[in-house]
Amino acid sequence: MSRREVVVRDSENDVRRRVREGDREAFALLYEQFARAVYNHGLRLTGDWSTAEEIMSETFLTAWRTRVRVQEDGGSLLPWLLGIATHKADNARRGVRRRQLFLARQPQPRVEEDFAPRTIGRIDDARYLRAVQTALERLRRQEREVLALCVWSGLDYQQTAEALGIAVGTVRSRLSRARRKLAHLAEEEREPPTARGEMTSAAAIAALPVREELT
Amino acid sequence: MNDDTTGACPQRHGDREEIARLLPAPADWDLPREQYLRHRDLLMHHIDHEQVARPRPARRLLRPAVLAPATALALACAVTAGIALTGGDSAPTGTASHRAATDMQPAAALLARISDATETRVGLTVRDDQFVYTRRRPAAPT
Question: For residues B114 and B70, what is the distance between their CA atoms, to the nearest angstrom?
Answer without folding.
Answer: 11
